[in-house]
Design a protein that fits this description.
It contains 7 helices and 3 strands. By secondary structure, the protein is mainly alpha-helical.
Length: about 120
């Protein structure tokens, strides 16, 4: 989503909440784009109560950790996820455990790149 469309989507969601048409906007994935800026806004304006965090969308591990900290501090549930272009690298599974999310969105276990992540979670 482009910057202007993100702002427009957030404004529409806020309007819907204020009008009573939505009780809560859960996990606005592509609107918040796993950024500290938009996650902070969602927390401040109480338009989210969960976040889908895509490590390879945000750009850096450091900023991803900051988003996780923001969610944790605000009492939000957060889920770690891949984005397009998955590989057999299991770092995301290990990172999800390290961040204490308790959730990993990686899809069905029929593709090799996903099986690698599940195997990593099953290791001692």
């Amino acid at each position: 989503m482009r910057e202007g469309k993100i702002r427009e989507a957030i404004e529409i969601a806020l309007y819907q909440i204020k009008q009573g048409h939505l009780s809560y906007c859960h996990q606005l994935d592509d609107i918040y784009l796993t950024t500290t800026k938009y996650t902070a806004r969602g927390i401040r304006e109480q338009t989210i109560n969960a976040a889908l965090i895509k490590l390879n969308q945000i750009g850096t591990v450091t900023e991803t950790i900051e988003v996780v900290k923001m969610c944790y501090s605000a009492g939000l549930k957060y889920f770690l996820s891949h984005r397009s272009g998955e590989t057999k690298n299991s770092f995301l599974a290990d990172f999800a455990v390290a961040m204490g999310s308790g959730q990993l969105k990686t899809g069905s276990c029929y593709q090799g790149e996903r099986i690698a992540k599940y195997n990593s979670l099953l290791e001692d």
